[in-house]
Amino acid sequence: MKIGTIYGVGLGPGDPDLLSVKSDRLVRNAKHVAFFRKAGRKGQSRQIADAMLPEGVIEFAMEYPVTTEIPLSDPRYNEVLSAFYEDCAAHLRALAQNGEDVVVLCEGDPFFYGSFMHMYERLKSDVPVDVVPAITGMSGAWTATGHPITWGDDVLTVLMGTLSEDELSRRMADTDALVVMKIGRNIDKVRAALRTAGKFDDAWIVEFATMPNQTVSKLREAGEKVTPYFSIIVVHGQGRRP
Amino acid sequence: MKIGTIYGVGLGPGDPDLLSVKSDRLVRNAKHVAFFRKAGRKGQSRQIADAMLPEGVIEFAMEYPVTTEIPLSDPRYNEVLSAFYEDCAAHLRALAQNGEDVVVLCEGDPFFYGSFMHMYERLKSDVPVDVVPAITGMSGAWTATGHPITWGDDVLTVLMGTLSEDELSRRMADTDALVVMKIGRNIDKVRAALRTAGKFDDAWIVEFATMPNQTVSKLREAGEKVTPYFSIIVVHGQGRRP
């Protein structure tokens, strides 16, 4: 009997026109799709693929049991998430073993801080898994600022807003170009770290990069409003430019 | 009279199936294309677009006057390159001012260490310029290794092989995940820096990511052969994974 393939399909930063030709084809021809989402939400990846999904597609929504309710430092966080990932992987594995291909919809690039990696590691030794790279959210963000991110020999550092303020400021000070992701409730810490590192005035913040509700502004002009988790902060490198 | 638009069209890492839907459409409908290349070569971006270019497309090859013949530290390097970029920009500007759209073919993502940035900065105040982000070469490379690049709170550092060995080793030691680009004749220095940083045994090297001649191996098993300038070295992060 034929074994199906699990496709980890990167959808890119959000604009459906920025899917790769390969991802676009896989989504439009899917019989089964699966996607992660927060309970009660439509799901970002599901939303990006909305107009592309074929009639009659079978959907498997993988709803996170926790996101911010249990602190990362609590051992239960890993236990609960691990059991959840095992359940999701078991469902996908069974589909593939029954001969079905499944397209897992992934925001951004699947191997770059992506949830699909947790499926990949659990499935890759059992069934065929094909990962389709994609445009990262950060590429969408720096393009939206209208300024190149890196020139010449510039060093680029990518930091998560979940790091400690000391760690953030130390690394922010020691790089040419900078991207900070996972902002959301970390925004005040990230602002403070940028100030300590002397980069606050050069920082841009992009919300909903490449999507219809995209906003782009210098961070110092962005005000104090709550910013989404998927916001991206960018500081451009200033390297050699003949 | 209508003014044309200069499109900086990212083509991604090499596989034509990995162009975005938008880039694919722009290339297939181009009347004018322009691209950088080393004199005497076909040009990497021109090669990627080869099977997509429409009949009768007008091609403008922008051939680098120098690449490695003049050392980077010599002031003539910047002078010669700057004059070359001015000439190219003048040609593109004249086309746009005559109402023609031009698709500039760009390997990888245009705003990430891309040559198109030199056109963008010279043209953006004179004519409309539209930049289409793309899958980076490094996304193609880490996907090819079959291992995710970053997990949880991993820090990612992107370094150019053109940096000094001390600078390379210091930064290699102080990151979770690592990408090194612009390898080529810098390979021995990069190897030495990875050894000093204790990361040599964890490093992978990918040549011609996503292309038919792609090779993927652990760096320590790659032998001493000459590796192309566009090779990419990857060390994967080992962060939190429930």
What does this 3D model show about the protein?
Chain A starts with 5 loop residues before the first strand and ends in a 7-residue tail after the last strand. In chain A, strand 2, helix 2 and strand 3 form a beta-alpha-beta unit. The mean pLDDT of chain A is 95. The longest helix of chain A is centred in the middle third of the chain and has 23 residues. Helix content of chain A is 30%, strand content 21%. Chain A is built from 7 helices and 10 strands. Chain A has 2 domains: 127 residues, Tetrapyrrole methylase, N-terminal domain (Cobalt-precorrin-4 Transmethylase, domain 1); 99 residues, 2-Layer Sandwich (Methyltransferase, Cobalt-precorrin-4 Transmethylase, Domain 2). With 242 residues, chain A is an alpha/beta fold. At the A-B interface, helix 1, helix 3, helix 4, helix 5 and strand 6 of A face helix 1, helix 3, helix 4, helix 5 and strand 6 of B. Strand 6 of chain A pairs antiparallel with strand 6 of chain B.
Write the topology of this structure.
The structure is a homodimer of 242-residue chains.
Chain A: E1 6-10, H1 21-28, E2 32-38, H2 44-48, E3 58-64, H3 75-97, E4 102-106, H4 116-123, E5 129-132, H5 137-145, E6 156-160, H6 165-173, E7 177-181, H7 187-196, E8 204-207, E9 215-218, E10 232-235
